[in-house]
Design a protein that fits this description.
55% of the residues lie in helices and 8% in strands. The protein is an alpha/beta fold.
Length: 345
């Protein structure tokens, strides 16, 4: 009898401790969730502010055009590789360089592009190779940007992504944001990133959204060494066909439903002999096949837009001004027939 009572008491205590643990866990999660939500719209991260400047500036450029237009959508390889100024003046079509930053991931890039593209527009996709193998897991840069400047992206995300984003902010960063928040508007305004710093980090933009100060004269010895030390992109170890390509497929289907035409092409990057190897060629062929299955024309070949290091500015995807001229002229030559065909159809 005593043994039964003792066992029952132990069971009751075990359940009690489990209940306490679960309750404390849920309360802590609730408090952390509230901590995240109440700092929404605040950031102490200057890089996040700079990314917002890029997106907000290009959004205003898009809004300034009322007629049908050509939208170039990608990470920064387009911003530093394609001249919409040249395209607009040679092909006589309004063009906005929507190249932003690959850091936020392909899903966000294409999510934002939906707010730019309208019926009758043509979207050109020279996406960086990394996007075709993106894991879909939100990184720190995307999480910080979303809670600071685009909470709607969080609201439309699936449950798993919401959980990852919610618990992806470091506690120290949240505390810094609250300190920043409670110092008031006057202090916050005094801490805004100055334009000259933005230009130094990202670059100056013209009325078409092109970066315009990536000249050879602006390259420092450090930048020259950085470019010279760059190595081939790694294709063969990347798994193809995951959330990255799923985001691309969803975007193309959305474009078709909105009567937005899509043309794919290849990003500008450095040429290395290793890209002739079987593994790399198979990876590139998979990209070609993806667009073929989606009935999206692909203009040019990967090799067409792979150049010598002398044409690059500060990364494997950023051309200098001379490189931009060469790349854009090549693009105009093969893009113009497609645009004429679309216009006449």
């Amino acid at each position: 009898m005593n043994s039964y009572i003792l066992t029952s008491k132990q069971t009751w205590l075990s359940k009690k401790y489990i209940l306490i643990f679960v309750s404390v866990f849920m309360i802590c999660n609730l408090l952390f969730t509230l901590l995240v939500f109440f700092q929404n719209g605040i950031t102490t991260d200057k890089q996040t502010d700079i990314r917002h400047w890029v997106y907000s500036t290009k959004t205003e450029l898009v809004k300034s055009i009322s007629q049908e237009k050509l939208l170039v959508i990608s990470g920064s390889n387009s911003a530093f590789g394609i001249s919409c100024d040249m395209i607009a003046n040679n092909i006589k079509v309004p063009c906005i360089n929507g190249g932003t930053t690959a850091t936020l991931g392909i899903d966000y890039i294409l999510y934002n592009a939906r707010s730019w593209a309208k019926k009758g527009d043509v979207v050109l996709l020279p996406l960086e190779y990394v996007h075709y193998s993106h894991s879909g897991i939100p990184n720190q840069e995307l999480i910080r940007y979303t809670f600071a400047y685009d909470f709607n992206y969080f609201k439309q995300a699936n449950l798993m992504k919401k959980i990852r984003m919610l618990y992806g902010l470091p506690f120290g960063y949240l505390i810094d944001n609250y300190i920043f928040k409670f110092k008031g508007k006057e202090y916050q305004n005094s801490q805004k990133v100055e334009k000259d710093i933005i230009y130094k980090v990202y670059g100056q933009l013209n009325q078409y959204g092109d970066v315009t100060d990536n000249t050879k004269a602006n390259m420092t010895p450090k930048m020259l060494k950085k470019v010279e030390a760059l190595e081939p992109l790694k294709f063969k170890n990347q798994e193809f066909g995951n959330p990255g390509t799923e985001s691309i497929i969803r975007f193309i289907k959305w474009c078709k439903s909105k009567n937005v035409k899509v043309i794919a092409t290849w990003p500008n990057t450095i040429w290395f002999e290793t890209y002739n190897r079987k593994e790399e060629q198979e990876y590139l062929q998979k990209i070609d096949k993806l667009y073929d299955q989606l009935q999206v024309p692909v203009i040019g070949k990967p090799r067409d837009f792979m150049y010598d290091k002398s044409l690059f500015y500060d990364s494997a995807y950023h051309l200098n001004a001379r490189g931009v001229l060469q790349r854009t002229q090549q693009l105009i030559d093969i893009l113009e027939p497609y645009l004429k065909e679309i216009k006449s159809s």
